[in-house]
Structures are given as C-alpha cells and as structure tokens.
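We close this part of the discussion by returning to an individual protein. In the encoding step, the backbone of a single protein was reduced to a row of integers, each denoting a local shape. The sequence in question and its structure tokens are set out directly beneath this paragraph.
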Amino acid sequence: METNKPDIRQLTEEALSAFFKEHGEQAFRGRQVYEWLWKKGSTSFEEMSNLSKETRKFLSENFSIPRLNIHSKQTSRDGTIKFTFKTHDGHLTESVLIPSGSRITACVSSQVGCKLNCTFCATGKIPFKRNLSQAEIFDQILTVKNKANKLYNLSLSNIVYMGMGEPLLNYGDVKASIKLIASEKSLGFSPRRVTLSTIGLPEKIKKLADDQITFNLAVSLHSAMDETRTRLIPINKQYNLESLKKALEYFNKNTGKRITFEYLMINGINDSIAEAKALAEYCKNFPVKINLIEYNTTGDPAFQKPDPQKLNEFKVFLESKNLVVNVRRSRGDDIDAACGQLSGRIK
C-alpha cells in the first residue's frame, strides 16, 4: 500500500538521531530505532517495545515502513523455494532459497524486470519497471534467512545477486545493501560470502575495483566468441569481449580477486569444442573459476538443454587447459526458479 509518509529506512542512523534531537528527544533513540529496523527486521513501529507509546505514535505519524510482502511461495521437488514479493507500489519481484546439504543460498533480485533483453532469459522478456531500494533487497535477504532458520534450522551460507535485473545498473542501492547486511548493526553477514553476478558492464566493473569491494564478482559470459555472445546478449554489441577483458584485467590488478565466469550451456549454440577453445584462450588473461550451468528451458524452442555428453566433453577440454571448472546442475527448474527463469509470472 502506498503512503505519502516518507520511508524511515531511507534515513541513516545519524539522520535518525538528528531527527530525535530536533524534536526534543534523546539522540540515542535513533540508535534504538535503527536496530529495530535493520537488526530485528521490524515491520511496524508498534513492535519497538523499548520506545514509549508516545514515541511510537509520533514515529507512525511521521514515517512509514514500506516492506516487501510475500505474494506467493512455490516449493520445488528438490527443496528449492521461490518467493514472489509484491512491492509497496504493486510490482512483483522474486527471490530463491536454495538448500544444498548443510548450506543455504539466497538468490536475490536487484530490479523489477530487466533492461538488457538477453534472448535466452525469461526475465529479459518482461518490461523493466524500476530499481529495487537497498531496503527492498534487505527484505528479500531477511525473508530467506528467516525461512532457512525455520524450515531447515540452518543459517544462511551465501547470498548471490543473481535474480531479476542487472545489479550494476542499480549500483548505488546494490552496493549499499551489501554494506548494510555486512554491518554488525544489521545482519553481520560476511561480504566474502556475497557474490554479485553481472552481464559485464566494463565501466561499472572498473568502478567496483576503484571502490575496493570485498564481495565476489561473477560474470555471465556464456560465450567467448563475439558473434555467439551478441546473439545471446545483445548489449555485447556495445560492450564486446575485448572491452570486457580490459575491465576484468583492471579489476583483478586492483583487487587481487579471482573472477568467476558463469557459462550457460545451450544445446547447439555455445557447447562446441570451438567455443571451449575460445573460452580457454579468453581465460588466459586473469585468474578465473568457471561454472558450467545447464540451460533451463523458458518455453522458447530456440534454446534447449545441452547434450550431457557434449557438456562433459566441454568440461574435460577446459580441465585439460588447467582451468578450474564446476558443473552446476539446475535447481528449482520445475517451479521456474532456476537461472534465467525468474519472470514474475505469477499474477
């Protein structure tokens, strides 16, 4: 529900303290409210029990706490859970809880829809509406964290910004959300267990390096041949593999971090040995880890899962070039929760 009252979660702890001082209250109230919002995930001012009733009423008269609300939930046969959230202004976005043994990963969205129109991706087929705020990203993470505790009695192990949208096109809020969840005044989640996945925007990757990020970078490469990559990722016309390579060299030089390449294996398109040779050559430029991911069908007959034998041959060839390669199997594909399938389809 939309409201004309300002979102209190847009205020820093310092701004909250200043607000209380301006209205004749003790500044430490700002710290208390900040803790309720970000450490306890409070959804209403009434929950803030160490504040007086008058203070809670005063806050509710001046501010709102617009949160993401769970619109629907689907559970896969493999235990993966997809959450569809509704924003305060009526948009839908999705997150995924992925259990794997004793580990739980949260896959979160950074935008409602996506601007990049990647041809193989379901998200690319829905109109871009807007960026998600750092608070809306936080809400997704907190929801998955709480569900992991409740359903599996496990703590959240990893967070990947790999859901709807291109995180680097929402640079400010994405970076702020990672800083927020890492804070001891919030979730205290180590940024070394956070991965940002991007299609590869060179100038933004250089900015990550300049900002000396402590989280991990993954690039959705999908081909090391410009013709193939442009077919899959139209923005490759604007930012080709050479410009991406230079940005990744800069990133590695300035951060010392190894880069992860996400590579969707698509039958008959990017799964040949010629493609593997091009990828191996591209990977000579910086230290990398390669995740080969089975393509997940989205209803477009032009894109199909890879042949298992060809996938294995591709992997074996890369390993023969001394590259670190993992094969990631589809999770949650029966509920459209796997890579490339998030599309806000539930209405």
Remarks:
- The two ends are 17 Å apart (CA to CA).
- The longest helix spans residues 134-152.
- Confidence is low (pLDDT under 50) at residues 340-347.
- The first strand starts at residue 69 and ends at 75.
